[in-house]
Amino acid sequence: MSEGEAFDFRLDRIISVINDTGAKVIGLQFPEGFKRRSSGFASRIEDETGATVFISGNPCFGACDLDVSLLDKVEILFHFGHAHLDDDRLSQKVYFVETRSSVDVKDVVKLAVPELKGKRIGLITTVQHVHKLEDASRILDEHDKVPVISSGDSKIAYPGQVLGCNFSAARNEDCDEYLYIGSGQFHPLGVSLATKKHVLIADPFVNELREADSERVLRQRSVVIAKSLDADVFGIVVSSKPGQERMKLALELKRKAKEHGKDAHILTMDLVTPDQLLQFKVDAFVNTACPRLAIDEVGRFHAPMLTPLEFEIVIGEREWGDLYFDEITGE
Questions:
Q1: pLDDT tens digit string along 256-314?
Q2: Same domain? 313 vs 245
Q3: Model's pTM, two decimal places?
Q4: Which structural domain range is residue 113 located in?
Q5: 130, 179, 180, 282 — which has fewest CB within 10 A?
């Protein structure tokens, strides 16, 4: 199955929206895996609507990561690959195109059943597969398992959906373990760390099973914390991206640093990269932007990059055993 066949980009619906609204300047924003298709989509939209299309070339890591500069230049921005976040700061000009997957999940769920040791199985996935969770539930029922699909907080659009920064749909204490349906590693890894439970990954694209190996990440994070224990000067990183900006948290961390005799400075920026931080002379950074940053880019910064929870361990306000993933949560 080709990429175009596997995902529904809803181009007919997009063209209908543009024609119905009479919009003349359109923006398209894609996550990295879909960018290669952007020029073809733009050509078809322009041919069938007469509108001018601008394509965002900036990185896109989630619904939290709207291209606000492009948003100012267009009448409608179509944001692909993510569900709408419950965030009043996100513009009404944005249409979220969830890009649902048509891939069949039944075979890989059947493959997973013998590997599931518990009775009550929490089902979790990304927005691309949430409509297939009922198929997975029926298979678990047929094999004497109890499927559990839980709702998350206000940032979660669908029951069973997890984000890279929010695992609230996997907070059901009644679950013995979790089955994650999808191809990625980060989301199930976060669930494993957040819940301390076994997470089995069922990848429907290659029909394979994998374990979420949280021990390796825990070892990496322990090294980062250990390198920061003697730090006196901290750079607290705050993103200006609309769904990632946590200035209130940054100010609270700065206050705690001062209480413990540490020096802390708030650094604000849009895209947080190792190069962007290279010129800042600090002993360690504290990341309040996308929680994935400290995990995915581990070892690439010139000073240790801590999560807010890890910073609290460093200054003695939290125990090492309390280590788990940073999350951006809703109500």
A1: 999 999 999 999 998 899 999 999 999 999 999 998 888 888 889 999 999 999 999 99
A2: yes
A3: 0.89
A4: 106-212
A5: 282
